[in-house]
Amino acid sequence: MMKIVVIGGGSTGLVYGSKLSEVADVDILVRRAEQADILNREGVTFQLPDGQTQHFTPKFTLDPTIMDDADLIIGLTKCYDVPTVAELIAKHSVSESIILPLHNGLGTQEIYNETLGADRVLAGTQYLITNRTSDTTVIFGANVRTIIGEQTGKASPRSEKLVDIMNKAGFDASTSDNMKQATWDKFQIAVCQHALSALNNMTFGQLRESEEVLATSRQLNDEFQLVAAAEGLDFPDEDSFDRVLANMKRGAIHKSSTCQDLLAGRPTEIDFINGAISELGKKYGIPTPANDAITQEVHEAESHS
After folding, report:
1. For the chain, which terminus, N or C, has the lower number of CB atoms within 10 Å?
2. Is 64 helix (H, G, I), strand (E, B) or coil?
């Protein structure tokens, strides 16, 4: 049985660790002793969209030495924690361990590559709408989709094996021979809705019903498309924003992770989302006033939360 370590005790880490624990030997590495204690006693409860619940009992720990014999290590912390996570993996894992980053935003892949060597690191992205309501309970949303591939774009037995395990665990998993495009497909959605959900304290469905908010979302998308084109990526004008609207509809009752962070008084990942568009805009000489402004607004909201 594959030995998997999931790093991160947020809602996404709980979902991936819990579901994978049904088909693999899983440990979830968290940072708070009280969270590990209560989860090891009570397990994880999913509140499903149809009103039913599911219960899981994966193992939780604060001990990084569990990575010593891991076959797969999945990174699911906040983006700003990735430098620390990568160093922890480098210290405690063996060279044969595969690393699968599934963080939000841009820039984390490069940190893992630099710290661990690109040959150990797969590319990955995930679509999961979920809110954690307590240390032990998550509202399980829509679209548990995972895309995994090699950074080189070539098919590989290890990526196909991981996709098989993900599918057995109940994820909608697939491989891709163009992980940069797959990553930016997900990134587009984050750019266009996460900060807006946070600043307006709105669900995705409420964003979709507000003409004023949608106008700003379209501005963010317009700048995103220009930067994406400079990066050699393809987002056709005629249907690009339709993907954002469709995601807002699928996750209508949920708020973004950025919103949840602001409400909880935690730092957000804004610098890895809209802030990343601003930085790439500077690199390519592309004005990004909407992304610049919304990044600043989120930082101001952080300082008052």
Report:
1. N
2. helix
